[in-house]
Amino acid sequence: MASVTLDRTDLRLLAEIQQHGRATNAELAARVNLSPSACLRRVQRLEAEGVIAGYGARLEPRAIGLGLQAFVRVQLSKHGQAAINHFVEAVQLWDEVVACHALTGDMDYLLHVYVRDLDHFSAFLLDKLLDAAGVADVNSSFVLRTVKEFRALPLSQQGR
């Protein structure tokens, strides 16, 4: 995806949308000192250009019964395209995995996993992840406490 040129007003608008996603167009316009029609045109342009990828609600995991969070590093036994594709396709089917990143270094993938409890994690690990063809090694770390969580992209780095 090509980089899009963003001016200061675009950046202020994006910051507001990241923090206040349910704000009305009129509220957004007031916060960034634009008329409602100009604000709407900018938001529509940012959506069309793919800068705004979508909208959604942030859920509290514990409130919906997901009390255990883990990061799982995975090493594949083979690194051919077929083995990689097989693993990537399997990950797409696992609801427990909320993010999967390909890595550099000694492990190939980092999975961010949410489960109910240790029994659920054990079932996920034994019945899904380790059962997936091509997984050579797994290393898990459980989250004890979240110190800082992703809430918004760092827009202050734009234009540097």
TrEMBL record:
GO biological process terms held by the UniProt record: regulation of DNA-templated transcription; response to amino acid
Sample GO molecular function, one term: sequence-specific DNA binding
Gene Ontology cellular-component terms listed: cytosol
Keyword field: DNA-binding, Transcription, Transcription regulation
Family annotation (SUPFAM superfamilies): Dimeric alpha+beta barrel, Winged helix' DNA-binding domain
Organism domain of life: Bacteria
Record domain HTH asnC-type: where: 6-67
Protein name: AsnC family transcriptional regulator
Species: Stenotrophomonas humi
